[in-house]
Amino acid sequence: MNDVWKNFWEQYAGAEAANEDELYLKVGKIANSAPVSRDVVQKLVDDVAEKLELTDSDTLLEMCCGNGLITHPLSEKVKKIYAFDFTESLIASALQHRAGTNIEYVTGNAKEDFTRIFAEPLPVVKKFLIHDSTAYFLPEDVEKMIEKIKTVSEDFMFYLTHIPNNANKWLFYNTPERKEKYEASVQSGDIFLGGIGRWWEKSEFTAIAEKYHLHLEIFDSSNEYAYRMSILLSSRPS
Q1: For 36-177, where are the E strands, in sequence order?
Q2: Does pLDDT of 28 surpass 80?
Q3: Which residues of 55-64 are buried (b: 16+ CB within 10 A; e: fewer)?
Q4: Cα gap 5→112, rounded to integer Å
Q5: How far lies 18's CA from each of 26, 29, 225, in Å?
Q6: 3-class SS at 165?
Q7: At a CB cut-off of 8 Å and minimum separation 6, what does 161 contact?
Q8: 51, 47, 45: which is closest to 157 by C-alpha?
Q9: E strands, 69-183, where?
Q10: Residue 152: enclosing H or E segment and its boundaries?
Q11: Does residue 174 have a pLDDT over 60?
C-alpha cells in the first residue's frame, strides 16, 4: 500500500516548490483551492509541542515530514530534529526552503528501518511524530513503526496527528455529491479517495496500544477538521 502512495505523492508534489505558497500546495495544505493560513500551521505546531511536551533539550524524530512545513517551526522548540520523507522532491524543497542548523532531512520510508537512514547512528530519541500521514498506512505498518521506535528507546511518546476518523467521515462527505463520489470510489477499490487515504477506527489504535502495552490518548479534532482525530501513544503507565 505504501508503494502506491509513494507514486501518488511523487506525482502530486511534482517538481520542487518555487515559493512559500507552493510549499503549502505541494503537501495538500489547502482550503478552497488556496494555501491554509499561517495561523493554521502555527496551531498545528503548537499542538505537537504541547502533546509531546517538547523542550529545548529534546530530540524529535519526524516521519513523513513532507517539505518541512511544520518541521522548521518545530525546530525552534527542540535541540535537534531528524526528519524524513519518501518523496525526493519534497525533501529537496525542505532542504532549500525549510533548512535549519538543528534539522537533518533525508529521504526514507517509514515502512523500512528508519532508524538507520541518517548520516550517523541516532542518539537516544524519546519523541516521535507522524503528522497528517497515518492515513497512508495500515495498522500493521504502525505496529512496525512502534517496533522500530522501541529499538531506539523503550521510553517514548509517539504522536500521530490529523487521522481520518471513520466514525465522523460523514462530516467530510457532507453533500450528496461528495457521498456519491466516495461510495463510487469505495466500490471501484480506489484507496486514494481523493488523497485523504484510509479512514481509521479508534478501536484499531486501542488494539495496537494493548498489544504493545502502551498508554493511549485520543484527541478528537473540531471545527473544519471534526472528521479527524489525533493519537498519542506512550510508554507511560495508564
Answers
A1: 59-63, 80-85, 103-107, 127-131, 157-164
A2: no
A3: eeebbbbbbb
A4: 15
A5: 10, 16, 28
A6: strand
A7: 44, 47, 48, 129, 130, 131, 132, 134, 230, 231
A8: 51
A9: 80-85, 103-107, 127-131, 157-164
A10: helix 139-152
A11: yes
Residue 91: which pLDDT band, with cuts at 50, 70 and 90? Answer: very high
Across 11-32, average pLDDT:
58
Sequence-distant (≥ 6) Cβ neighbours of residue 1 within 8 angstroms: 136, 137, 138, 141, 191
Please provide the size of the chain in residues.
238
Residue 70 clears pLDDT 60, i.e. is over it: yes
d(CA 208, CA 199): 16
Name the 3-class secondary structure at 32.
Answer: coil
Q: What Rg value do the Cα atoms of the chain yield, rounded?
A: 17
Q: Is-contact 60 159, C-beta < 8 A?
A: no
Which are the contacts of 69, defined by CB distance < 8 A and separation ≥ 6?
A: 23, 24, 27, 29, 41, 98
User: Phi/psi at 90 (nearest 5 deg)?
Assistant: -70, -40
Q: Is the pLDDT assigned to residue 87 strictly greater than 60?
A: yes
Band the pLDDT of 168: cuts 50, 70, 90: very high
Residue indicated by cell numbers 457521498 = 179
Residue bearing cell 528507546: 153
- Cell matching residue 134: 497515518
The strand pairing partners of 102, in sequence order, are: none
Which are the contacts of 143, defined by CB distance < 8 A and separation ≥ 6?
Answer: 208, 211, 212
Mean per-residue pLDDT over the chain, rounded: 89
* pLDDT tens digits, 126-147: 999 999 999 999 999 999 999 9
